[in-house]
Amino acid sequence: xxxxxxxxxxxxxxxxxxxxxxxxxxxxxxxxxxxxxxxxxxxxxxxxxxxxxxxxxxxxxxxxxxxxxxxxxxxxxxxxxxxxxxxxxxxxxxxxxxxxxxxxxxxxxxxxxxxxxxxxxxxxxxxxxxxxxxxxxxxxxxxxxxxxxxxxxxxxxxxxxxxxxxxxxxxxxxxxxxxxxxxxxxxxxxxxxxxxxxxxxxxxxxxxxxxxxxxxxxxxxxxxxxxxxxxxxxxxxxxxxxxxxxxxxxxxxxxxxxxxxxxxxxxxxxxxxxxxxxxxxxxxxxxxxxxxxxxxxxxxxxxxxxxxxxxxxxxxxxxxxxxxxxxxxxxxxxxxxxxxxxxxxxxxxxxxxxxxxxxxxxxxxxxxxxxxxxxxxxxxxxxxxxxxxxxxxxxxxxxxxxxxxxxxxxxxxxxxxxxxxxxxxxxxxxxxxxxxxxxxxxxxxxxxxxxxxxxxxxxxxxxxxxxxxxxxxxxxxxxxxxxxxxxxxx
Length: 490
Description:
Elements: E1 10-12, H1 52-58, E2 62-69, E3 73-74, E4 80-81, E5 89-99, E6 103-106, H2 108-111, E7 116-120, E8 126-128, E9 130-135, E10 140-144, E11 166-171, E12 179-190, E13 200-203, E14 215-218, E15 223-231, E16 238-242, H3 243-255, E17 262-263, E18 266-270, H4 273-279, E19 287-292, H5 297-301, E20 308-312, E21 315-316, H6 320-328, E22 335-342, E23 345-352, E24 354-355, E25 367-373, E26 383-387, H7 390-395, E27 405-410, E28 425-429, E29 432-433, H8 437-446, E30 452-459, E31 464-471, E32 483-489
């Protein structure tokens, strides 16, 4: 039966009532110790930090955005088009000017579908805005209004941002225009939607519906993020897209209207000391190739499972995220040199990059209540497994290279098994294939108590592959006989 999985729910904060839904959230109060230095180098008193001068400078460049869907829009001949909507739906959010010639940065989810976009400046002037380009992968969009000499926000360096640094958010929550909230950077590199591209800044500055697309400002008056998302389960948990991500793609949005990204077609796993031993590398950095997709650029280049990619065209790869960024920043069709460690041997491979397509990330969140009997004893991993039947292979359309033993129940409590669920298929143990129960038992018999084992797992629905690091327990303690109700996500 499945192990419990903690599921966090996050919501985009566009405040598009009826268009994107009504979202909720909040923030928290903050205080600053006396004599603390701000990022700008000025000393603030015992009260809350003052962003007054910063806000006075930045606020004129923050705009109110209204997105309207279902409106009748005149065509080139003056006739109106009927889009078939029964009602006109209206959403509101925020953006900020990044160029004096009228270019405005905001969120993709705010302006992805409306026919009409209106922008109101801080001086109350209003303009129709054109959508110049957008990028769903990073939730960023670029608008343009016909105006010149506008105040613009200076963009900072989000990579140099430190956890605990003071920041403020400016936006239009619940139509309270140009509201300012203050907090700190709670964390960096958060992933909440897209595992490949997400690196959100987490902040406890209050972010509410309507803040979406507004700037997150440091004490020097620079935009270091674009407010984008919030947790609906707690207060003081908001998220912003790092400004460096925006700077990387603004040129493409302005000239092409979209972002073309290079693509290898591989699934990655970050290194840790135990995984270093499994893949036989002494390198402490790099990205482990967990899976190679058939027919993609990685397969054509000769990449194999358990290869460790340490450099791309001479540039060091720290981890999987760094590799994705380096490949994505290159044009499709370009060739890159990959420095690879395969079973301790260095290799040089050439890869001609394909173009990354926008994946459909919408998956059903099938949560079920499970009643699990923990009285049974599992194997050395705390698992109860069985042979994968031919009927199941056909019904689930399991590829030939994904055959293994199927997990019937997870009864152990050792670290690592919490990511394994009922129905998962164990394809390899420590790189040893386990297509049949006999193979699986033989591999387990050779393991020692307390040893760390790596399980290559295939999950048929929704389709996924991953590595699970599990502690071997040759004589698992029998769990007290009782039934517990669990919430699981398959």
